[in-house]
Amino acid sequence: MATASDGQHQSNAGTGYFQYHQELEEDEIRLIGLETGSRQDSIAAKLLHKKVDDDTIKYDALSYVWGSKSDAVTITCDDRPLYITQNLHKALVELREDGMDNSRWVDAVCIDQLNLGERARQIRLMRHIYSQAQMVYIWIGEELATTKIGAELLCRISKAVQALPSGATTETNILNSKR
After folding, report:
1. pTM
2. Which of 40, 122, 132, 178 has its CA at a distance of 20 to 30 angstroms from the CA of residue 63?
3. What angle do CA 82, 87, 88 make, to 5 degrees?
């Protein structure tokens, strides 16, 4: 499966830039396809290109806190080493652990961060990228003691917003409840 060791942290991660085989066309995005594996397996992936208007290729998107680049982890992408942050690595392990075997859009990997032109074009496409994703995962880090409380609070807020009368805005109801 993978040839890189995920457990080895790279102190020189900034010197080994990943070289993308092919630039994106104006109407394309890259997706990363994770190979299945257990939590202990190294992460291996392949990149593929997708036309923005091609609805036949389904994907999920990942929004996450990047984390520090100074303590990077190596994964294998297109049979070559790719350095990612520990936080992204943990998110990918969790997504793979869930048994998901579809393509994903992950900004740090799917956008050539050193190519300023590509980066600018992809930023303009982000609204489309996230809106066309089948699912958007949000990863803020590993679970903490307060995570469950925060998740329950978000659920309560969501239910309260859904219960608002049609056409009402949250701001209007908050202002009215303070009177």
Report:
1. 0.72
2. 40
3. 45
